[in-house]
Amino acid sequence: MTAVELRVPTNADADPWFELFDDAEVMRFVGSGEVRDREYYAGLVHGQQELAERTGLCLFSVVSDGEVAGFAGILPWSHPWGPTGSLEAGWRLGRRFWGRGLATAAARIAVDLARERGIERLVSMIHADNAASVAVAQRLGMTPSALHRSPAGAPVREFGLLLD
Ligand SMILES: CC(C)(COP(=O)(O)OP(=O)(O)OC[C@H]1O[C@@H](n2cnc3c(N)ncnc32)[C@H](O)[C@@H]1OP(=O)(O)O)[C@@H](O)C(=O)NCCC(=O)NCCS
Fold it and tell me: Is 52 helix (H, G, I), strand (E, B) or coil?
């Protein structure tokens, strides 16, 4: 098993996030499916740094053998539809890091951090056709609940996990 660790993203992590996710296959089931520019990831990093400062949790950089592989973490569900008020566990890796168990290992670390902070429940919102991500949720012990429709009409399954 490859060693994996999480860290609050550094400003420099915006570059690997952009490069890893500038890939239509990675973005296929994320939002509208569009790839984002470098500035978007610089803004995302800053937002996550602020979130970590406030809550101790955020979308962390996933670092595998010293290399940024993507992100995983816990953040408030911020859309006007879906499980308003919930905290979401999320994960996204660059394609060359798929198939090694890294996303599940990283998500487990993030879930443990949430548990340590006394969080009682997490959700994950996953496009119904995103089998690889559904498999991560299931490996974490998450259970499927409501099927939502995104504003664009995509079927998005809510998964839930009670933490003790
Ligand atoms: C979702 C995503 C992170 C899943 O990545 P992943 O590498 O498939 O997930 P895991 O880390 O759980 O790895 C599981 C795979 O690693 C393999 N594996 C190898 N060693 C393993 C280990 N020690 N433990 C678990 N799995 C291992 C498994 O067999 C499995 O391979 P398979 O897909 O061929 O069956 C990845 O597909 C991704 O980034 N997708 C694009 C972004 C996205 O959709 N994010 C989620 C939005 S809801």
Answer: helix
Looking at the CA of residue 29, tell me the nearest atom of ligand 1. 44
Each residue's pLDDT tens digit, 84-131: 999 999 999 999 999 999 999 999 999 999 999 999 999 999 999 999
Average pLDDT over residues 68-96: 97
Instruction: Tell which one of 20, 133, 157 to mutate to probe ligand 1, the residue whose CB is within 8 A of the most ligand atoms.
Output: 133
Residue 92 Cβ contacting ligand 1 at under 6 Å:
yes
Domains of the chain (ranges; CATH) run 4-162 (3.40.630.30)
User: Could you tell which of 26, 93, 140 is best to mutate to test the pocket of ligand 1, judged by most ligand atoms within 8 Å of the CB?
Assistant: 93
Q: Whose CA is nearest to atom 2 of ligand 1?
A: 133
Taking alpha carbons only, the member of 89, 124, 103, 134 closest to residue 4 is 103
Nearest residue to 143 (alpha-carbon basis) of 132, 157, 129, 127? 157
**DSSP states along 90-137:** EEEE-GGGTTSSHHHHHHHHHHHHHHHTT--EEEEEEETT-HHHHHHH
- pTM of this prediction? 0.97
